[in-house]
TrEMBL record:
InterPro entries per record: Erg6_SMT_methyltransf, MeTfrase_dom, Methyltransf_11, SAM-dependent_MTases_sf
Molecular functions (GO terms): S-adenosylmethionine-dependent methyltransferase activity
Gene Ontology biological process terms, A to Z: methylation
Keyword Methyltransferase: yes
Name by which UniProt lists this protein: Methyltransferase domain-containing protein
Keyword vocabulary terms for this entry: Methyltransferase, S-adenosyl-L-methionine, Transferase
Top-level lineage group: Bacteria
Length: 280
């Protein structure tokens, strides 16, 4: 099966998936303001998963180069953890969008509780139809959200439209590392199927950014610091927790065959890319 013959994610269904995951995580006490793979700077880093998640936001903040005068778009904002951390560290304003109504409700509640509602606003919306004027943001961040968007080209082209000249885009995305195996590891198939995702190709990004009118500033394989390390960390915890947080119970349609992070333990052909681009 090639990526083009696999089922593409549908934004409405992705929104419903994240609605269920959000409600479930609140119900079973596993709620986390970050919905992403963490970042461990070094192989001997002792950071917990929670600390590594915050570290990923801080890596984004370093590359975004924003300050208290900036307005940042958070594309696929989750429940707002990364956006709120960026606001409190830089003073920037953040507007976040997600296809999940439950995530948006939660993100706005967390912003109000943190006293940041004047600088952080979260709204329901599809990244493939950005409801914003041209040149309206100084920077765009997308932490692990493009994998759910069926048309990366359309997203990046629209990002180029809403970014002001000189503004940066920083994103992470999942990809299949080369050389591709003839038969894809079943863990990758399960990940894509159950988390409604597609994988990118490192070469794709060069062409995607070029066609969108964005200038590539950097592309880094951060697999060792992210996916591989997360699978290792999760391997250390009990099996009941060895599932994406909200898959444990509640109203998620969990089956024995469902994806678990341990399905990707040691699978080094599944990785994570950090991409930095700029609107010329
Ligand atoms: C893995 S979560 C990452 C959330 C957040 N960036 C974080 O790091 O905590 C993926 C996010 O992408 C959002 N998303 C997926 N497809 C989307 C689309 N077409 N438009 C807007 N958001 C989308 C989901 O609703 C979810 O919030």
């Amino acid at each position: 099966m090639t990526e083009t013959t696999r089922t593409l994610p549908v934004p409405g269904a992705v929104g419903e998936l994240y609605d269920r995951l959000t409600l479930s995580a609140m119900h079973d006490g596993t709620f986390n303001p970050n919905v992403h793979i963490g970042y461990w700077d070094t192989p001997d880093s002792k950071a917990t998963i929670e600390e590594a998640m915050d570290r990923l936001t801080d890596v984004f903040t370093e590359w975004l180069r924003v300050d208290g005068t900036s307005h940042v778009l958070d594309l696929g904002c989750g429940v707002g953890g990364p956006g709120l951390r960026l606001v409190s560290h830089t003073g920037a304003r953040v507007t976040g969008i997600s296809v999940s109504e439950e995530q948006i409700k939660t993100a706005n509640r967390l912003a109000a509780e943190a006293g940041l509602a004047d600088r952080a606003v979260f709204q329901h919306g599809d990244a493939m139809r950005l409801p914003f004027a041209d040149d309206s943001f100084d920077a765009v961040m997308a932490l692990e959200s493009l994998c759910h968007m069926p048309d990366r080209q359309q997203v990046l082209t629209d990002v180029a439209r809403v970014l002001a000249p000189g503004g940066r885009l920083v994103l992470t995305d999942v990809f299949e590392r080369h050389p591709r195996k003839e038969v894809r590891h079943p863990g990758i198939d399960k990940f894509c199927r159950d988390l409604m995702s597609t994988t990118a190709d490192v070469d794709d990004y060069v062409a995607l950014l070029h066609r969108s009118g964005l200038r590539l500033r950097g592309i880094l394989d951060i697999t060792e610091q992210t996916t591989l390390r997360l699978a290792e960390e999760l391997g250390k915890v009990a099996t009941a927790q060895d599932r994406p947080a909200a898959m444990n119970e509640g109203n998620f349609d969990f089956t024995e065959d469902a994806f678990r992070p341990s399905d990707l333990a040691g699978v080094d052909d599944f990785g994570c890319l950090l991409v930095i681009a700029e609107r010329p």
